[in-house]
Amino acid sequence: MPKRIYLxxxxxxVQLNDETVSRRHARLLMDGATLHLKDLGSRNGxxxxxxxxxxxxxxxxxERHHVFAFGECVRTIGQIIRTAELEAAMARANxxxxxxxxxxxxxxxxxxxxxVPRRRLSASDIVQLLERVEDQLAEDVxxxxxxxxxxxxxxxxxxxxxxFGRTRREREHNVAVLRQENERLRQRIAALEAKLGVxxxxxxxxxxxxx
Length: 211
Known about the structure:
Blueprint lengths: L3 E6 L4 E2 L10 E6 L2 E6 L6 E5 L2 E5 L1 E4 L4 E4 L2 E4 H17 L29 H16 L4 H7 L4 H11 L3 H43 L1
Parallel strand pairs: 1-2
Antiparallel strand pairs: 1-3, 3-4, 4-7, 5-6, 5-8, 8-9
């Protein structure tokens, strides 16, 4: 089997469309049964995921079952290879350039799926991912395993929890508080508009009296 080199990043053989992934993030070399991964000086680094620990990875031999975080995008080496092979097969079957890929929204963010070009997840996407993690935790799945299953790191999960809430109840409470605040602001804006409207109506009358 000839040597094969796969470029991992936002541009390359294996596209990871995540804002924490560099354009040219890492390189995977396949030489027969030997696999060698090398970080290409990426902005947010490449890390080996070992249980709940992240170990900085520069270069070295890897196995298909090894889990890596490219920035905050988590993949196994096997998933990287399958994605590269799928993209190569698609290119051979349809060599026309710049053909858009249908955006299946949430499904496209699942670990191991071929990602469609998208800069960032929507708030709705993030909430759905948090709900998936919450459901897995209720089934006694370890947090690191639940995060890996949806393709994120623990750091990103904690950041999303701070922003959106850790549980459904907490998120519902945050939404209720936000709605109350929006209603208060709408009432305040309406009062200001009414006050400005009265002042605007009075100004022409004063002008006519002075004339």
